[in-house]
Amino acid sequence: MLRTLLALAGLLLLAPATASAGAFGELPFHAAKDAVACLQATGSPGELVYQTRTSAQVLSADATGLTPGVTLPTEGAVDCAHSAAWPGGGGLLSFPLADELNGEVWVRGFLREPGQGWGEAIEIFPPRTRVMTGAVTNAASERGDALVAMSTVDNNRQAEIRIARRLPGGAFGAPERLALGKTAGQDRLDSQAGYSAAGEAILTWAVKGPKSADPFALWAAIAPPGAPFGAPQKVAAIDRDTAYALTVGADGRALAVFTSDERLVVAERAPGGAFGAPAVLAKTVDPLGSQPVAILRPDGGAVVAWTSPLTAGLTARTRERAGAFGPAIALVRPQKLGSVAVMVQQRFIGGYSADLGDATPHAALAADGRVMLTWSHLRLLQGVWRIVPGTALLDFAGGERETGTSGGPLRSPAVITPVLLADGSRAVAWSDNRADFDTGRVHLAREGSPDRADPPAPAVKVTLIGSRSLKSDSPLRLRVTCDAACDVYAQVAGQEESNTSTSLAAAGSRRIALSPNRRPLAPRKGGKLRIILRSGAPGAHRATARTLTLNVRRAPIAFPPRALGVSVALDGDDLVVRWHTATPASPDRYSVWAVDDQGEPVTSTDLRHGPKRTSFEARLEDARGAAKVIVYEIAARSADTRQTTVKVPG
């Protein structure tokens, strides 16, 4: 498998018309004492914020690196905080909290007026009870208007959005309620918001209709400065479980980019109007949809870009003024990937997860009029498929474009975002965490800075822990010892889905485990198991490569005695299954299933623990439609099973 993937290495190239953006030099990283989640640029020059389990940490980014600022308490937050900013240093941070015991959800936030520090925590929304799902978004205008929207679905499947707004310099007013009616969807509503420079607010959301057969639809509502939101407008159908992007220009023009009927489309709102019919941007998208991002400038010029999660592609379309978009530009050409590359790519499918990462590309408009894009870029580094931060610069004509990558092969980024510094330079920031999510880092690569040299590579020793005899579902346990701080990545050759990593902040040892994925690690008849190792100093751009070869064998599987003489008798809608064994066995080593003629489960039962015996009986309740009964024999201390199948009489 690895040989096939190595042959693909030359295919994942940046488009030939694209120059290399190699001028982003990495600066010293910020080491956090906890796992880093939800990294984002606030919108104020050179400012970032990330979350830990109990707080939000503000960072200042400049040509020297990252400097910690104020820490804001967010204990109890159940999702990422959202940030927004306006000129002069104004800022908003809001996040949802939940009391699972009482079934309550509410929103708390922090405000920072221009020229001041962050204020005390404010309760933006009072608690809502009997809520199944909830989500929060916020936005701010250039003059200091701000809104926070909380979308919820209650236990009766009634959907609504509550919006709290404030005028520049004021406090948040009483929440405004948009009742959306009943929804058959079980997922939370995906809402986004934006402002014009004059304080006109635009809110969008995706929701399923009241019936199970109803499609999902993208809706929008618009509010003039200081006035209530108007009646919601249905923009168009949106494919289920797909991401969308909203961008609002200074003049009130807005673009909504989304997947509809397996096509990527854009719906545009002219200043003062409603959203028009969608226009097609891409006639085909990945089966799981695309991850889009969009940006507008005041004259209607726009850049829309999207990643294709299953093909590792990045495509953009641009325009210099309001109207049609130009042809598609392949910033990173989509490719047909091998299974391992797809597995690595799938780590970033499905939006944001604090454990897995952020699939969404991000965009920022820099002072020179070019758009900076960042995304999760798939790359073969020293023979190993890894995700690294990707960066692209392009103008609104689409003619001038550069692409490049940052980071190294040892730790995968969780979130990647552009950040514009106070001196006007561009930078890309990303976070990564140790595999056990105990500690994390925030990295910064700045345009024009020299790349820092890697520290000397530590000496790394990897040894086997325990027996070389592995059960079919047993992990391979290893001890990693470093003579200095280190990052180490390990994967099983030929089973690249089995991988792990670890980091040490100083000389010492740590245990790691490589777990089987689709098949046992040890060959059936025993043999060599090769472990691909990559190691280096923390944050190293290039790793020390080596392969550890171990002689291992497959441990024998301890199955219970065979089920003999299996019989099935009808008893109303139930099935009574009997069998015997040649030697006594524990009842809890057997599981009985009924399946239909397509092999789909109908019902099942597990036998309870009890004294060993040689005769067994199990009752399968409500087994109507069953065609076969399967008696599973469960191996001791293993996930292995073997089975005996018989037909249901009659």
Structure write-up:
The protein has 650 residues and is an all-beta fold. Among the domains are: 95 residues, Immunoglobulins (Immunoglobulin-like, Sandwich); 84 residues, Sandwich (Immunoglobulin-like), CATH 2.60.40. Helix content is 2%, strand content 53%. A hairpin with a 3-residue loop joins strand 13 and strand 14.
List the helices and strands and how they pair.
Blueprint: H1 2-7, E1 19-20, E2 24-26, E3 30-32, E4 37-41, E5 47-51, E6 55-62, E7 65-73, E8 82-86, E9 90-99, E10 104-112, E11 122-129, E12 131-140, E13 146-154, E14 158-166, E15 176-182, E16 190-195, E17 201-208, E18 216-223, E19 233-237, E20 245-248, E21 254-260, E22 263-269, E23 279-282, E24 291-296, E25 302-308, E26 313-319, E27 329-332, H2 339-346, E28 352-353, E29 357-358, E30 362-365, E31 371-381, E32 384-394, E33 401-405, E34 415-420, E35 426-433, E36 440-447, E37 460-464, E38 469-470, E39 476-482, E40 486-492, E41 495-504, E42 508-514, E43 527-536, E44 544-554, E45 564-571, E46 574-585, E47 590-595, E48 601-606, E49 613-620, E50 628-634, E51 641-647
Parallel strand pairs: 1-33, 38-44
Antiparallel strand pairs: 2-36, 3-36, 4-5, 5-6, 6-7, 8-9, 9-10, 10-11, 12-13, 13-14, 14-15, 16-17, 17-18, 18-19, 20-21, 21-22, 22-23, 24-25, 25-26, 26-27, 28-29, 30-31, 31-32, 32-33, 34-35, 35-36, 37-39, 39-42, 40-41, 40-43, 43-44, 45-46, 46-49, 47-48, 47-50, 50-51
